[in-house]
C-alpha cells in the first residue's frame, strides 16, 4: 500500500485558518458547534474520543510538531480528522496561548444532555453554580475526572465549557467524562435529588464540617457537590436547596482555600468514602 502524501503547508489566507481563528469567540463557537483543543495532550484525548464520536474535525500542526508528535498526528488521521501543516505564524494566529505547542485541533461540541446523566444513576457529580473563571472551571473538571466522578454539570450562570482557557485547564479531562451545560441550578439539584443523589453545598461558612461528615459515615452515599462563585461563594437560595452545607476545615492559619483546591478536597473525600467498606462503590483494584 502506498502511503498518503504529506499535506502541503496551508496558506495563512485559507478559509480553514480563518474559520479556526474565529472559534476563539464564544458566539462563533456556538454558531458552528465547534471549539479549539490546543496542545498534544488535548489533541490526543480528542482523537481518542473521536474514534467513536467523530469529535476531532481538523488538526493544524507545525512541521516540527508533526514530527515530534507523529503518533498523535497518526491518531488524528485515524479518527478521521483533516490534518493541515502550518507555519508557526499560522498556529500562533489560531492559538489563544502565549507559547503555542504546535498542535491545534478543531473539535465538535461534546456536552451530554442532563437527562442522560441522570439516567446513568451517577454516584459522584460536581455541579458548578455561578463559576465564572474558565481556568477554575477547567481545573475542577480535571479534579472531578481524577476523583472518578461520573459527571460534571455547569449551570446556566457559569462560564462557557468551550472557552479556550477552560479547555486547556481541563488538560484533556473534558474528553473523559460526561459534562452537561446550561442547566438551571434548581433543575440540576432537583433532578439529582430525584435520582437519589445527596446534595452537598461546599461553602467556607457551612454549618457542617467535612471531617465530621466523614466521621459520621455519611459520605459513602451517592453525592453531588455544588461549588459556587470564586468571589462570593453560593447565594443563600442555592445553599437552601442542599441537603447539607459543608465547609472544608482549616487546621492552619490560611484564610481560605481557592475554589479548585476546595473542590479537590471535597471530591476526593466522597470518592474515598464511596470506595470504603459499605460505600456505594466497590474498592478500586490495585
Outline of the structure:
This protein is 40% helix and 18% strand.
Protein topology:
Layout: H1 15-22, H2 26-32, E1 34-38, H3 40-53, E2 56-61, H4 63-68, H5 70-78, E3 82-85, H6 88-94, E4 103-108, H7 114-119, E5 124-128, H8 134-146, E6 151-155, H9 164-170, E7 179-183, H10 185-194, E8 198-202, E9 208-209, H11 210-216, E10 223-227, H12 236-239, E11 244-247, H13 259-275
Parallel strand pairs: 2-3, 5-6, 5-10, 6-7, 8-10, 8-11, 9-11
Antiparallel strand pairs: 1-4, 2-4
Helix pairs in contact: 3-5, 8-9, 8-13
Q: What does this protein structure show overall?
A:
The chain is α/β, with parallel strands linked by helices and 286 residues long. Helices cover 40% and strands 18% of the residues. The protein is built from 13 helices and eleven strands. The chain has helices at 15-22, 26-32, 40-53, 63-68, 70-78, 88-94, 114-119, 134-146, 164-170, 185-194, 210-216, 236-239, 259-275; strands at residues 34-38, 56-61, 82-85, 103-108, 124-128, 151-155, 179-183, 198-202, 208-209, 223-227, 244-247. The strands form two sheets. Strands 7-6-5-10-8-11-9 form a seven-stranded parallel beta sheet. It has a four-stranded mixed beta sheet with strand order 1-4-2-3. Strand 5, helix 8 and strand 6 (151-155) form a beta-alpha-beta unit. The longest helix is centred in the C-terminal third of the chain and has 17 residues, at 259-275. The radius of gyration is 21 Å and the shape is elongated. Residues 1-5 have low confidence and may be disordered.
